[in-house]
Design brief:
By secondary structure, the protein is of the alpha+beta class. It has two domains: 153 residues, Jelly Rolls (Sandwich), CATH 2.60.120; 105 residues, Orthogonal Bundle (Arc Repressor Mutant, subunit A), CATH 1.10.10. The protein is built from nine helices and nine strands. The strands form two sheets. A five-stranded antiparallel β-sheet has the order 1-8-3-6-9. A four-stranded antiparallel β-sheet has the order 2-7-4-5. A hairpin with a 2-residue loop joins β4 and β5. α1 packs antiparallel against α2 and α6 packs across α8. The termini are far apart.
Length: 302
C-alpha cells in the first residue's frame, strides 16, 4: 500500500495573543472605550453588562459573548445594579470566517464556557501578573510555567472560535437523540444547577446525594473527575463567588451577605472568604474599588 499525506485544513487560526483578562467589576464600573487593530472577545461569566460597539449600546447577559472587530470602537458599562464578571481576550486572526461574528451577540454553551475557563487557567500558569488588571498591556511569560501552556491557550481558543462559528450557522434538521440513562456530564450539569438554586442554604453531602438520586460515593467520584475537587469544596467556592458579586453590587453589607447566603455568622463567612480567596471581604472590596478608581482617573486624564 502507498500511503499519502493529507494536508489538514485550518479554517480559524490564532496567530498571536494580545491580552487575556478575567475581570470582576463593581456594579458602577465604566470604561471610557478604545479601538485597536486586533480582534477582542468579551464574554459575560456572571451578572450582566452594557457594551457599546461603534455607538450601538447592547446588554449582554450571563453566558453571552460579543466579538469586537479590529479598529471598532467599544466601551463597557456596568448597569449600576448587577456586578459583572467578564472574560476578555485580545487576539490576531486573519481568517475570513471571523466576519460571521461581526455585530452579533452569541450564546455560549457549557462546553465553550469550559474552554474559556481552561484558557484563563493556562494563562494564570503561563504568564506573570493579575488577569484582573486592565492596565496590563503585555503578557510576560513565566520561565517556570508548565510545558505547552501557550500552545494549549491557542488550541482552546481556536476550538472555541470553531464551535462558536458552528453555532452561528443556520440550524440544521437533526434526528432526536434518545438516552436510556443520563450521562455523567448530564448528572454533573444537573447538580451544578441544583447548587445554583440552593446557593443561599447550607448543604450536606448526604442531602445533595438524596436530592439528586445519586450515591455519595458516585457523587464524590463525579466531582473528582469533572472538577478535580470535593463536592462541598466546590459548593463552598460557588458560595464565595456569589458573595463576591454581592459585595460588588454594593446593595448589602457583609452581615447581610452572610445571612443571605446561609452562613451561621458573619465571622464564619469572613473566615471562609479569606480561606478561599486569601483576602477578607473588606480587603476584596477595597482591591476591586481601587481598580475602578484607577480607571475613572484614567478616563478623566484622557
Amino acid at each position: 500500500m502507498k500511503y499519502k499525506y493529507v494536508e489538514l485544513t485550518e479554517e480559524l487560526t490564532i496567530h498571536r495573543i494580545v491580552s487575556i483578562h478575567y475581570f470582576e467589576y463593581m456594579s458602577d464600573f465604566t470604561f471610557a472605550g478604545e479601538s485597536h487593530n486586533f480582534w477582542e472577545l468579551l464574554c459575560v461569566d456572571k451578572g450582566e453588562v452594557d457594551v457599546v460597539a461603534d455607538h450601538e449600546r447592547l446588554t449582554l447577559q450571563k453566558g453571552e459573548v460579543i466579538f469586537h472587530q479590529p479598529n471598532e470602537f467599544h466601551r463597557v458599562l456596568a448597569n449600576g445594579v448587577i456586578a459583572p464578571n467578564l472574560v476578555v481576550i485580545g487576539f490576531e486572526c486573519q481568517s475570513p470566517h471571523m466576519a460571521s461574528f461581526k455585530e452579533k451577540v452569541l450564546k455560549v454553551g457549557q462546553e465553550e464556557q469550559e474552554l474559556l475557563a481552561r484558557i484563563i487557567a493556562e494563562a494564570r500558569l503561563g504568564f506573570h501578573g493579575r488577569l484582573d488588571n486592565p492596565y496590563q498591556e503585555v503578557l510576560v511569560r513565566k520561565e517556570e510555567g508548565p510545558f505547552g501552556a501557550e500552545q494549549m491557550i491557542k488550541i482552546y481558543l481556536e476550538q472555541f472560535l470553531i464551535q462558536m462559528y458552528r453555532r452561528s450557522l443556520p440550524a440544521r434538521q437533526a434526528l432526536p437523540v434518545y438516552k436510556e440513562t443520563p450521562s455523567a456530564e448530564d448528572v454533573y450539569e444537573t447538580i451544578l444547577y441544583y447548587f445554583e438554586k440552593n446557593i443561599c442554604v447550607q448543604l450536606t453531602i448526604d442531602q445533595i446525594s438524596r436530592d439528586n438520586l445519586i450515591s455519595t460515593s458516585q457523587l464524590k467520584k463525579l466531582f473528582c473527575e469533572k472538577a478535580g475537587t470535593g463536592v462541598i469544596e466546590y459548593f463552598n467556592s460557588m458560595k464565595i463567588d456569589a458573595a463576591k458579586q454581592l459585595i460588588r453590587n454594593r446593595q448589602l453589607n457583609f452581615t447581610q451577605i452572610a445571612n443571605h447566603l446561609g452562613y451561621t455568622s458573619v465571622h464564619y463567612f469572613s473566615r471562609q472568604f479569606k480561606h478561599l480567596t486569601g483576602m477578607t471581604p473588606s480587603e476584596y472590596a477595597t482591591s476591586i474599588k481601587k481598580l475602578s478608581d484607577k480607571n475613572l482617573l484614567r478616563e478623566a486624564e484622557a
